[in-house]
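Below is a filled-in request sheet from our internal design queue. Each sheet records the structural input a requester submitted and the sequence that came back. We keep these sheets so that new team members can see what a complete request looks like end to end.

REQUESTER: design group, bay 2
PRIORITY: normal
MODE: inverse folding
CHAIN LENGTH: 136
BACKBONE (tokenized):
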């Protein structure tokens, strides 16, 4: 069992409110009738353990959560940086704005929302859009 609780009747959204994709996605998710728990990572610290759980839920490495082309990242690191998981976690801790895409946990399923409209395919009643490989 992970540290992030999941609930089939709740959507958790991890997003950064100071970037346009995060703002737009948050607004889109708020329009659903489901119970929403929004975690604005510009205001709420996400622990290393939680980042690891989010990455594993998505089926990716923590490194893939980071937008290496983001100006805040490229000012401090090389785009081809080869770091350990602990180092990538430090990047997310110090610069949460470099999160590549908002992450939604919909029931037991973890998804990256690459655009606000992506959310629609994941909230259909029969959940056709959910990729079963993306859950813990």
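RETURNED SEQUENCE:
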């Amino acid at each position: 069992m992970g540290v992030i609780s999941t609930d089939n009747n709740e959507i958790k959204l991890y997003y950064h409110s100071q970037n346009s994709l995060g703002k737009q996605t948050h607004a889109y998710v708020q329009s659903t009738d489901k119970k929403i728990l929004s975690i604005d990572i510009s205001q709420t610290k996400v622990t290393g353990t939680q980042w690891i759980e989010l990455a594993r839920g998505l089926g990716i490495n923590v490194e893939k959560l980071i937008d290496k082309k983001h100006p805040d990242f490229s000012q401090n690191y090389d785009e081809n940086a080869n770091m350990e998981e602990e180092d990538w976690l430090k990047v997310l801790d110090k610069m949460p704005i470099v999160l590549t895409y908002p992450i939604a946990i919909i029931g037991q399923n973890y998804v990256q929302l690459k655009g606000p409209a992506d959310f629609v395919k994941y909230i259909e009643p029969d959940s056709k859009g959910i990729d079963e490989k993306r859950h813990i």
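SHEET NOTES:
- Residues 7-134 form a domain with the Glutaredoxin fold (CATH 3.40.30.10).
- DSSP finds four helices and four strands in the chain.
FILED BY: M.R.
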